[in-house]
Amino acid sequence: MTRYARQMVLPQIGAQGQQRWAAAHVLVVGAGGLGVPALQYLAGAGIGQITLVDGDRVEETNLHRQPIYRMDQIGQPKAQAAATIMTGMNPAVRVIPRVEWLTPANAPALVDAADVALDCADSFAVSLTLSDACMAAGRPLIAGSALALSGYAAGCCGGGPSLRAIFPDLPLRGATCATAGVMGPVVGMIGALQAQMALAVILKLAPGPLGRLISFDAATWRTGGFRFDEAAEPAAPLPFIAVDQIAPDDLLVDLRTEADLPFDFRARHLPPERIAELSPAPDRRVVLACRTGLRAHNAGQALQARWPGRIALLAVTDPVT
User: Fold this and answer.
1) For residue 320, what is the DSSP state?
2) Residues 197 and 189 sit within 8 Å (Cβ to Cβ)
């Protein structure tokens, strides 16, 4: 056990804590800017099993903030490339790559099999879907987000409030790393913080990270945060569904203004600002679709305010059919 000697000497860890980590199964969703440092420190600590879910491939524009990947790995699935690298770092850790996107269809089983989940994705739909699955299963979720020069990590679910309780209202528009930019050390700090929080959850350290949000702003050199133990869950959260969970009688609405064709031949193309034109039958479920889930969520809340029927959200990640 000489590999772990420097951490086992800590009274909070010891041999018993190391055994807990070796027996733990961590679900990491996303092998990008947040997932890379989280994976490195989880594998370095000796987590027994890591399931890594990511449907993306390595791109050259990733490399400044995802430094484990090499130029000769461009085009490879991130999940497979990262799993190979982690196995090389620590052969005692079993890393299971899943080259797929997390969806409402596969999330419940993935969460059920894990002791703790890390949200290292870059999608409103994935984050809320993972939070919903963790909330239903009673699993701790370590959520994280970083953009430009700031970011945060938060310990959710597992008996505490969900991500929806922290952020009941989403922004009207969502920036991305491609549009707003991001610095590598910022995502590195947040991803490392997520790993630290996950390791603490497994050890059941007190005080624990659940119910706590920690933020960092590199522009002002300030850290902050707050506790959200008493944050209320939304009364009627709008659930996400997967494409294969669409029912034959659903009313499908494609909100994507950037797409020439709707995602499904049965779908109606409608910009978000015209959601008031929708007059569904009371017994039909409305499925609102967009690329990230943000426009669907906001349009769904607007529709929910004037129509009492069932509403579901869909993030369209596949090419239009």
Assistant:
1) P
2) no
- How do residues 239-254 score in pLDDT, each as one tens digit? 999 999 999 999 999 9
Phi, psi angle pair for 244, to nearest 5°: -75, 0
Query: For residue 235, what are the contacts with CB-CB under 8 A and spacing of at least 6?
Result: none
Residue 52 belongs to what domain range? 2-227
Whether residue 279 sits in one domain with residue 154: no
In eight-state DSSP terms, residue 116 is: E
Express each pLDDT in 77-92 by its tens digit: 999 999 999 999 999 9
Q: Provide Rg for the chain, Cα atoms.
A: 20
How far is Cα 273 from Cα 132, in angstroms, rounded to an integer? Answer: 27
Q: Residue 267 belongs to a domain with what CATH number?
A: 3.40.250.10
Same domain for 265 and 222: no
Q: Establish if 9 belongs to a structural domain.
A: yes
Residue 320: the pLDDT is 34
Residue range 269-296: average pLDDT?
92
Q: What are phi and psi of 233, to 5 degrees?
A: -75, 145
Name the pLDDT band for 180 (thresholds 50, 70, 90).
low
Instruction: Give me 188's structure tokens.
Output: 């590195």
**Residue 44 token pair:** 């370095």
Active site residue ranges:
177
Could you tell me the two tokens for 319? 């090419």
Q: What is the mean pLDDT of the chain?
A: 93
CA distances (Å), 98 to each of 83, 101, 180, in order?
10, 8, 29
Name the residue among 233, 257, 237, 244 with its Cα closest to residue 314: 244
Q: What is the DSSP letter of 57?
A: B
142 and 214, same structural domain? yes
CA pseudo-torsion sign 57, 60, 65, 68: positive
Structural domain contains residue 321: no
- Give the pLDDT band of residue 137 (cuts 50, 70, 90): very high
Q: Which two tokens stand for residue 130?
A: 């993972």
The reported pLDDT for the residue numbered 1 is: 61
